[in-house]
């Protein structure tokens, strides 16, 4: 039964990891605001001056890199942990992923409450819950 739980855990980590990689791509390749950014800002990308566009683009690229790092960790480290019986690898992935997803939840939820924009705060919370479940199943 232990191996079955570990495989389900690896699947959950990988699922959150894949979503993170999709978000990394969206943030790294975006040429402007994401839809909820426009909603929160109350203006279209073209209405923002060039200097602020550069700052927002840089922050989106940094966000994309963060999503990419977390996504890769959530996919690779649990697999390594499963194959080598290294619980530290799984623990590192779980803590990093949980920290990132809970941080996204807080930031996005605050943006929603401050602006009324429909941010993906629920998805961040669901990802954190999936990581918590995977962590329990892993150990």
What topology does this entry show?
Layout: H1 2-29, H2 35-41, H3 50-84, H4 87-115, H5 121-138
Helix pairs in contact: 1-3, 1-5, 3-4, 4-5
Describe the protein in words.
The chain is mainly α and 139 residues long. The protein is 84% helix and 0% strand. The relative contact order is 0.18.
Please tag this protein with its features.
0% strand; 5 helices; 139 residues; mainly alpha
Order of helices and strands: HHHHH
What is the percent of helical residues? over 70%
Number of helices: 5
Low-confidence stretches: none
Main sheet summary: none
Distance between the termini: 12 Å
Proportion of beta-strand residues: under 5%
* Rounded average pLDDT: 96
Provide the structure class.
Answer: mainly alpha
The Cα radius of gyration reads 17 Å
**What is the number of strand segments?**
0
Global outline = elongated
